[in-house]
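Chapter summary example.
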Amino acid sequence: MASASVLQDGAELIVSFPCDSLADGEHRRLREPGESCDCKDGWGGINCNVCKNDNACTGFPLAGGISSLDGDDDVEVGNMTCYKGGETVFNNHQMCDVTNRKIIDMLPGRPPQVTFSCDSSDGTCAFQFWTAQVESFYCALEQCSSENQPGYDTNSTVYACEKVKCSCVPGRFICGEDGSVDIGEFLREEIKGPAKFSCVSGNGCKFEEPAMNDLINSIFGDRYITLTCEGGECLHYSQVPGYVRPPKPDNTLWLALSASSAILFVLIASASESARSFARHLSPHIAGLWYAGQAGGGEYGQIRLPDNEAAKLMADHVPASLHFSSLTYKLGPRVILDNIAGSVKPGQVMAIMGASGAGKSTLLDILARKGKRGTVGGTTLVNGREVADAEFKGVMGFVDQEDTLMSTLTVYETVLYSALLRLPREMSYEAKKYRTLETMNELGILGIKDSRIGESGKRSISGGEKRRVSIACELVTSPSILFLDEPTSGLDAFNAFNVVESLVSLARNYNRTVIFTIHQPRSNIVALFDQLVLLASGKLVYSGEFAKCHNYFTSIGQPCPPGFNIADFLIDLTMHASLDSGDNSDANTSDETSLLDESSTPTTNLGEEELGLRTVRVRPSTPPGDETELRTRPNSIASSTGRYLKHKTSQLMEAVKTTATGPTKPISAKLAALVDSYSASAIAAEIKAEAEALRRQTALTDNGEAGVSAGAEGVMNELPDIALETTLLRGRKRASYGTQFRILSGRAFKNLYRDPALLTAHYVSSIVLALICGLFFHNVTNDIAGFQNRLGIFFFTLALFGFSCLSSLGLFANERILFMRERANGYYSSFTYFSSKILFDILPLRLVPPLMFGGIVYPLVGLVATVPGFWKFMLTLVLFNLTTASVVLLLSIAFASISVASLVGTLVMLFNLLFTGLLINRESVIPAMQWLHTISFFHAAFEALAVNELRYLQLKEVRYGVELDVPAATILSVFGLRAQSFWWPNISLLGIFFVLFTSASFVILHIFVKEKR
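The structure predicted for these 1013 residues follows.
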């Protein structure tokens, strides 16, 4: 063997090393102590065992049992070659330089080297570690085998040995030299094998053994000993192992795919250029139309379209009548609506009235086919036909009671976005823009088109104008039927009248069908109604033409007093009928008690404010003397109060009992009388007969039979199939996904930069805190304190970005209702909304701040000054911030309450912070719970930052005159941080977490965040 250190019976024997060349055999000169070998020409290595060229092998003794090729042993053997293939044929020797960065840094002027030699006859190898050509430790490897693994571009040689015995040379490097570290016991007790020595041509070599790898990783931060080796073995040319170059891989498929991709790229680029050219050609026309709209102001007549477009706009509408009968709605055992019927024709306005809780909004939701939690029954006919929900939603518009508009947009932008998203994609941009301006003019809001919507504390337009903007968003799609839930709610009398008047004008001038709920309108508003539906406690009190309403109630003995607002009269009538207990047998009950009971009976239909009104209002049938008596008998107040409290208590217990048992409480006798009177009236019979006649005539028409009736039936028979006609007229294709994404992205970006407080706060805080961190952590030193400061700045940075992401909880929460309603009304798909939200709302807040912060902090703090290190630092910050933002987005979507989402988000951040790796050592956690570190995205980012910065750092600390030189990787291992974990698992986990949480956010948004009434 080439080594001079051997193990005999566990004892180490040190002998001198030979020099000259391996070809000299027994005649080699021994190496003098403290001197290096002078090798002969063509030989190299510490012990001159490695041949460098073929000339060095001239005359080398043949191995493998071959004596001489010509039979003369005294003749020098020719045709010898220095085989450098790496695989051992007989006796192979390799001279290697250690390339581990920290090992080299610890040995300035003392280059670390390794010699590796193998003998194929007995399957043994020898591994020696040297510093400045002085041996430090030696390993004998047994039961070794070698394998050559040829590849197309590279060759690999692998030596695998099952058993290893190692020993230190006392007093040498890492073996107790000058009182330093002594790993002698570790080598004897821990290094057992198996071991592997492998080389890849062009990529160096490595020596691996499990215990040795742990030692190298803990002390130097590398996975194993890395080497660059040069080997050689003198062989006759006939003894060189044969090598057959493998066939070149067939890349035809990849070549075809690459060519196809290149062609596809050219086509896409050409299409994009064409689109840009079209946009440049179109922009002057759009700009001209915009200028016309701006310059015209209130002079709407100056805005014009080409005749072929203008003629289509108002024609893009199919008149629709609506008949409904036997409508019921049950929520569990409770009956909310019972046997509701009515009809409304094109050009008419239907008002649904009733006291609070009478079921007005519920009826409107059912007529508009909104998703309800309970069970809906009954029949609804559109132009005499039953229409599927999907088709019905294409011809109707719905305006909620609350205005859900984006406060940062202008009136014009709000209506225009509705038009661009919902009008047919075949319709030109100019036509959609014209339709927007036309609708605004119809509703009288063209003069405020450049005003922002505004919000609480930042008002811009009035409540009435905001309500008309909401109506315009639905009207711009030219719906056949328009539903509105209390359009006058929250408006003063003047604005309420203007809104209703605009709805009436819309219905009569443009032949639309308008249905809305309203609560106690003024008399001038009531006079505009065409059809009226009156509800009380979910029962139908009246449904029919408003003009017949007065005569009908007079005919059943409930006339409206002269000069009294009939709307107020009807509300009072239904309210008193609902509150009546039905027990009138006690003749001794005074009028005052009856009045008090009536005015104080709690029901689900009456609010506290209305209860107060009932105590001062007397029914028309009450004599004036009773009212005077009630107000002038102070001695009756105590007894009245006692009866009131007693009655209140009994009513409360009754309500609790009813709620517990479930069934709906029976209605009062007076209300039942009103309901029965209407159901037996000629008006109810007329509505029912009209619906039946329309159904029959529609069936005849659809079957192709020529049945023409006179009168109303003949008129109704002219109404077309609304689903078929609408499909033929304007198709079903609304804005494409690309158009939706572009519009929603622009809207999200406008909303962000027009309300820049959050964006500015993030950017400014990133810069200011980066400067503060640069001040306190300026130019960190390479000692223990510097190690602590580095971990501190990393921990602070992650905590900063982690908790600052909680500010994004409101980004979706503030738009939750807007999203649900726009999605329900067919504005866009959930995917395009989510994508635009991510790219143009989340990313500006989560991508730019870490780049700003990292660009300032990195040089100021004085972190490792390498380009790869800097970009790894930035990559980690960005991925961590995106991952944290995706978690916050998931919480904001999953929890409707911002308070709950904030609490859960804080707990999630604290949990992840606990397992960052600085507060709890990973190794101190029981193995069954160590997975908690793995699922902590704070830990993944913290470990990646620490490894990137500290893996190759050498710490120098002077204490009490003693200089300590410690690799930072050693301290990292003490902290439980893995020096090899940057790309996997840390960076990979951050990417996986981001994709996982983002996907979960979309799934929850798509499946669970839906309008449910």
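To summarize the output: The first helix runs from residue 101 to 106.
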